[in-house]
Amino acid sequence: MTKIYKYRKLHGLEPHQALFGQIEICGERPPLSEMLRRANGNETVYLCGSLDQMTREYCEEPLSNGWNFLNSFVFKHRAPVYVQANRHYMGDRKEVAVKLISHREGWLPGCEDVTVAVDAWRALESEWKSTGLPLLSTPRATGIALLWENLPRGVEFPALPDDLARLIRANSPQHRIEVIGEGCKRMLAGESVLDPKFCDHQYDGRWMYASLCGLDRFPIGEPKRAEGFTPYTPGIYDMTIRIPETWAHVGLIPMLEDTGVGFTRAWRYPSEPGRTFRTWAFEPELTLALKKGWEIMDFHDGYRFEKGRPLMTWAHKLIGMRERLEHSETGWHFGGGEMVNHFSYARAAVRQVLNHSIGALHKNEYQREAFVSEDNYRKWRRENPHLAEGDDVLRVEGGYMVPTFVADTSPLSIFMPHWSATLYSLARARVAEWALKCEPGTLVKIHGDALYSTVAQPELDKLDDGETLGRPRRK
Predict the structure, then answer these.
(1) Same structural domain for residues 426 and 301?
(2) Which of 81, 146, 322, 420 sees the fewest Cβ atoms within 10 Å?
C-alpha cells in the first residue's frame, strides 16, 4: 500500500529539554557519567567542545559507571544515547541523549563555548515559537515536523514505489566535487589544489538549497513511464547523450564510472568533445545540457511527474526566521576575549534545519556501527565497496567497527527522494551555469555550491546583489 503524505497538524510533541555542558573546563575534563547523572529525566545533553576533545574513550567512560548505550554507537556523529543499567526512573528507564552541538551535523556548527551556545539556543527558541512547535533533539527531526504542517493543504503526495526510490537514490549524487583546469595541473605537479598562491578567488551560493525550494520544478503526483524527454518536465531519464564536437568547457551531466581502484565507482562529469555516453539523469541538468547544444542520441527509459512547489511555504518560513535573526542587533556577547554575535549561530541552526531535512527526505535510514570480525571483513568489503573506502571503518581488537544502516521507523519521517534528488540536480545545474560564465582555464575546482578560480570572475560578480539567496558571492 502506497504511503500518502499530506498536510498534517501535529499534536502532543513535547517541548525539548536541553542541558548544556562544556567538555573541557580549565584544562580538566569532568567525567561524562557525572553529566548524565545530573540530567533530570529524559533530556538531551548538548556538549560544547572540539571533535578531538570528545574522544571515543570519553564517550565510553559512562559504560563503567552504571550506563549502557541504548543503540549501537556512531562515533563520527558524536551522538550516543545512554540508558541506566539495571535501574528505572519514575517507572521507566532513564535515557539521556548526548550530542556535540558544535558538530557539523549538530545544531550550532563550530560553537565550542557553552555560554555562547546557551544564548544562541535561547535566541533560536524565541524565534521558533512562531511555528507553534517545539524544538526537537535534532535539526532533522525539527525540520520534518515543521514540514508536515506546511505541505500544501488539500494536496496528497504519494510515496514512490520501492524500486523507483532505489533507482533515484542510486543515481542522485548530492554535491558535485570535481578538480578541473588549473587544479588538475597542480595535482599532477604534486601541489595543493587550493594553494592561495594559485587559487585566491572563491564563489559560493548564498544558501543555495533554500533559494531553490520555491521553484515550480519539483516532481509531484504518481510517476508515469516516459516515452521521451521534454525540458522542464520533472523526472529521471535513461538516455544516451552526445557532447558537441566543439565543446570546450566543464561537463554538465553526472555519471557513475569505475575508478580503477578496487571495487569503487565515482561520479564523473564527461566533457570530452564528441563523446557519447549513457546515464540516468534528472530534468534540471538535462534541460541545461540541451540548451547548450548537447544532443539526446537515444531515449531508453524514464519516469516523469507533474510539477509543483511542495517545499515552498516550509522553506519561506525558515528563510524568514533566518533573516530576522540576521538583522537583530541584540545578539552580541563578550566571550573568549572578543565580541561574539551568538545570533550568527542561531542563524546557522535554521540553515541546519533546512539542509538536514532535505537529507532526511532522501534517506529513510540512520547510520549505526557494527562489528565485523577479521575473518569476515574481506567479504564485507566486497559487498560494501561504497562504505569500505570511507574513513568510518575503525580497526579494533578482533576485527573492525564498520558503518551500517537501520530504517527510520519514526511516524514523523517523510521519504520523498525524488524531491531531494531534484533539488540536488537544480543546485548542480545552477553551479554549472556559473562555471560556464568563466574562462575554463581559470577554474580550479567545483565543490558543492562553490567555485574556485585563479582570477576574479566579472560575470559572477555581476550576479551578486549582496543579499538575494542563491546568487554567487565572492569570498
Answers:
(1) yes
(2) 81
Task: Output the CA–CA distances (angstroms, integers) from residue 208 to 193, 257, 418, 471, in the order listed.
Answer: 24, 27, 18, 8
Q: Please compute, for residue 463, the number of CA atoms within 13 A of its CA located in the half-sphere on the CB side.
A: 20
Its pTM surpasses 0.85: yes
Residues in contact with 320: Cβ distance below 8 Å, sequence separation at least 6, in sequence order: none
Residue 28: DSSP 8-state: B
Note the pLDDT of residue 339.
Answer: 46
Q: Which three cell numbers stand for residue 345?
A: 549561530
Q: Are residues 110 and 71 in the same domain?
A: yes
Reported as a single tens digit per residue, the pLDDT across 152-194 is 999 999 999 999 999 999 999 999 999 987 666 666 566 776 7
| Host H or E run for residue 359 | helix 342-362
Closest CA to 207 of 339, 111, 125, 325: 325
The domain total for the chain is: 3
Residues 231 and 336 in one domain: no
Dmax over CA atoms of the chain, in Å, equals 73
Place of cell 549524487: 173
State the DSSP string of 86-128.
Answer: T--BTTB--EEEEEETTSTTSSSTT---HHHHHHHHHHHHHHH
What does the alpha-carbon distance between residue 12 and residue 163 come to, in Å, rounded to a whole number?
A: 34
Query: Residue 3 domain-assigned?
Result: no
Mark whether 434 and 354 lie in a shared domain. Answer: no
From 134, 108, 138, 104, select the one nearest 120 (Cα to Cα).
108
Residue type, 218: F
Show the domain range for 388.
Answer: 365-407
First to last CA, the chain: 50
Q: Give the pLDDT confidence score for residue 306 in this predicted structure.
A: 97
Q: Do residues 8 and 145 touch, judged by C-beta distance below 8 A?
A: no
318 shares a domain with 223: no
Residues in the chain, pLDDT under 50: 1, 90, 332, 334, 336-339
Residue 187: predicted pLDDT: 65
